[in-house]
Amino acid sequence: MSLAIARSSRQVGRLIQRFRQEKGLNQTQLAQLAGQRQEMISKIETGQGGVKLTTLFDVLAALGLEMTLEPRSQSSSADIENIF
Predict the structure, then answer these.
(1) How far apart are CA 46 and CA 16, in angstroms?
(2) Does the pTM exceed 0.85?
(3) How high does pLDDT run on average in the chain?
């Protein structure tokens, strides 16, 4: 598993979706593993707001992932545009 950088809820959602698919899980299966509802997984994967941190950590744990925080790298405005 490689390092993945996310700078928005949308990017976090896309990464969670990618890791879920790599594990061969659908949203319902991940929701069951995380003790959540499928609708919440959909909400997270689309980057919608209002998700509790505890819920996010439950999903990360169900996927065998952890979050690492570090100072944001210095990027040009062109680099930031490429993220989206």
Answers:
(1) 10
(2) no
(3) 90
